[in-house]
Task: structure prediction
Amino acid sequence: QDNSFEQFIINYCNEKLQQIFIELTLKEEQEEYIREGIEWTHIDYFNNAIICDLIENNQTGILAMLDEECLRPGTVTDDTFLEKLNQVCATHQHFESRMSKCSRFLNDTSLPHSCFRIQHYAGKVMYQVEGFVDKNNDLLYRDLSQAMWKANHSLIKALFPEGNPAKINLKRPPTAGSQFKASVATLMKNLQTKNPNYIRCIKPNDKKAADVFNEALVCHQIRYLGLLENVRVRRAGYAFRQAYEPCLERYKMLCRQTWPHWRGPARAGVEVLFNELRIPEEEFSFGRSKIFIRNPRTLFKLEDLRKQRLEDLATLIAKIYRGWKSRTRFLLMKRCQIVIASWYRRYA
Result:
């Protein structure tokens, strides 16, 4: 119920993870249709970049203003930090405070004077400003780092590389907020280089009981995880897409014109294949480099046809092999019979 600096930076990390999820799924999904020249109706979805900017902007972000309060001379308190937020973020649509120069929340009794509220992607969260400055200013000073670096234990020494006398840095140690921001940036950079796969888990109840579904809890998680937007984009688009070459290679056995070899461009081969199978035109679209299939049932149909065709081909191969084996045995027996008969007639 009482959210302080720790919960604030945790929620900031959650916002960044949600942002990369949006960029790598919803945004990339729609941009791929544009790249491939597929006719597409844009689906609006909420992009939480505006919330991330509210927190991490280098000039007007909450973390930047918190660092500025920690570094400036004079009397610095949590109240002065909140006052600074009220001045800079008053007009931001995702920031709420009773003390801001914007009078929208002046009569909001659910928002105490010593708190501010951020409308996160998952909903509104209220933060107690008390302790923000002290917790952000919790620095690991240079002499402590040097003392830990002198430890005989290799692990402890590795945990404090900034204590190495050969790498003396006269700058002020970074604040907790700036360190966390740098760590999140490194994490995001690492994730951008990967091909992530997402598993979204829904908790049906808080009691860990079987066969008990809390509808309000489930609906909240669905909204929080962005599943509605993801499903909306998926249903409006195409369930399956594949480059022409592997698609033709996988399903060419279903058409006499493409089996066993297709002499021509892969796209032309896929067009001939789909026309031969009489798949409805609304079920697929041809992109610049990929074939897009709208309904999973169409893909299941192709897989069933391929499975049946493989069985037929296996039966054909077995039939031809058995015929070859029987004919080879027959010819061998025929030659042996001729040899035996010729020798018998010689001595008869």
